[in-house]
């Protein structure tokens, strides 16, 4: 097979790979990508213009309820195999320093970090990939032991930012500069700056360019977290279970369908409400309502695809607002969320 189209945008190849992932055909998918490599497509393009966007499409299909969780898991597993196959076929001599690439504690989106590690390797860095959910203490002993030039940390979910902050600080104390990335740091990496990292990059290629330039630029900026002095964040964490119970009781009272939930549905609802409180806490941590309203936009889309009216979420939001009468910052974020959902409801 040869790529004869002038634009060579890999559009058709993305459709083919997506179809093979949908069929969970590991060997066909791997063979397909390796053939593209053999036909001269650069490995970095295969990672960033083929595997990465196809994974995003996998996420869209799951979110839209067109693919099951099992299909998504199978597809991601195959993408990991494809990345591994590309890696073994593209040896590179190290000409630059050592980068340790790791997921934050509690972060399971390892493929994103792996793509970053692979691109840096292809650009001549010696990379060590530590994988998903690395506890801070283990990462730090590794940094002491290995003394890398950079630690690159990935975070896909903004709800993990309070953990990310602790991890960033712990790494910085070892004297190793911290580069971060992933969708968890928000649009334009806004929360990376709040947490005082040495650097943020929107993607793997940008990360390579940043490290190839003047890096690190100087002492990392001080984290913009003075608001944490009011103790609202730890107090909110202490009330997590109580808030979930309060919100769940409100759902049972005001959402007629909830009365007929079976055990599994009740557990799933409690889990979702826990997620809601965790996102609220993360918004309180970085003091930005966008973190919470972004989560609600995402929730609304997920619910709509599953034929649940997004306005249902107004019930737990109002219950939390009533319970958190003495938490001014959390209440502001809840207000912003209620306004956002109420506007969406009018738009429907
Ligand atoms: C595969 C997948 C999973 C797999 C991950 C397995 C694995 N081995 O990686 C599993 C099943 C574990 C999973 C779990 C969950 N997931 Co998930 N997942 C995905 C999916 C479909 C693909 C992720 C991926 O590989 N993306 C491709 C890469 C290329 O994109 P990327 O992450 O943006 O990475 C690029 C840049 O961001 C950047 N970058 C990333 N890291 C770093 C690091 C550095 C240092 C730098 C510089 C740059 C950088 O460079 C990358 C390449 O250019 C995404 C959909 C999506 N849009 O990404 C959802 C997605 C991220 N998941 C989502 C969710 C909700 C979850 C769960 C909460 C689901 C649940 N209810 O359990 C859990 C949370 C688990 C956890 N605590 O981490 C949501 C997040 C929504 C939100 N509001 O935050 C998404 C967007 C799905 C969706 N459409 O709704 N997930």
From TrEMBL:
Gene3D superfamilies (UniProt xref): Cobalamin-binding domain (3.40.50.280), Methionine synthase domain (1.10.1240.10)
Pfam (any one): B12-binding_2
UniProt keywords, alphabetically: Cobalt, Metal-binding
UniProt key word Coiled coil: no
UniProt xrefs under InterPro entries: Cbl-bd_cap, Cobalamin-bd, Cobalamin-bd_sf, Met_Synthase/Corrinoid, Meth_synthase_dom
Classification via SUPFAM superfamilies: Cobalamin (vitamin B12)-binding domain (SSF52242)
Domain B12-binding: 96-222
Signal peptide: none
Keyword Metal-binding appears in the UniProt entry: yes
Protein name: B12-binding domain-containing protein
Organism lineage string: Bacteria, Bacillati, Actinomycetota, Actinomycetes, Pseudonocardiales
């Amino acid at each position: 097979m040869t790529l004869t189209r002038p634009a060579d945008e890999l559009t058709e190849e993305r459709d083919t790979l997506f179809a093979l992932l949908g069929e969970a055909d590991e060997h066909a998918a791997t063979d397909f990508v390796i053939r593209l490599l053999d036909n001269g497509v650069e490995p970095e393009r295969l990672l960033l213009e083929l595997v990465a966007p196809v994974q995003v499409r996998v996420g869209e299909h799951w979110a839209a309820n067109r693919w099951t969780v099992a299909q998504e898991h199978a597809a991601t597993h195959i993408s990991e195999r494809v990345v591994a196959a590309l890696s073994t076929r593209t040896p590179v001599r190290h000409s630059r320093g050592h980068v340790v690439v790791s997921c934050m504690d509690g972060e399971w989106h390892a493929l994103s970090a792996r793509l970053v590690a692979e691109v840096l390797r292809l650009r001549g860095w010696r990379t060590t990939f530590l994988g998903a959910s690395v506890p801070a203490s283990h990462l730090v002993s590794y940094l002491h032991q290995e003394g890398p030039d950079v630690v690159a940390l990935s975070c896909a979910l903004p709800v993990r930012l309070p953990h990310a902050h602790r991890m960033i600080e712990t790494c910085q104390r070892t004297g190793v500069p911290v580069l971060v990335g992933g969708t968890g740091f928000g649009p334009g990496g806004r929360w990376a700056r709040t947490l005082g990292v040495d650097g943020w990059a929107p993607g793997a290629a940008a990360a390579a360019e940043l490290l190839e330039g003047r890096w690190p630029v100087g002492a990392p900026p001080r984290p913009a977290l003075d608001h944490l002095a009011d103790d609202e964040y730890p107090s909110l964490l202490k009330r997590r279970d109580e808030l979930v119970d309060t919100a769940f009781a409100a759902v049972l009272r005001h959402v007629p369908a909830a009365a007929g939930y079976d055990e599994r549905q009740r557990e799933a609802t409690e889990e979702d409400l826990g997620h809601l409180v965790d996102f609220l806490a993360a918004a309180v941590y970085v003091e930005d309502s966008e973190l919470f309203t972004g989560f609600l936009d995402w929730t609304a889309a997920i619910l709509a695809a599953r034929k649940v009216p997004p306005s249902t979420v107004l019930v737990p939001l109002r219950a939390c607002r009533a319970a958190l009468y003495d938490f001014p910052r959390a209440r502001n974020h809840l207000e912003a969320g209620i306004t956002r959902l109420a506007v969406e409801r009018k738009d429907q």
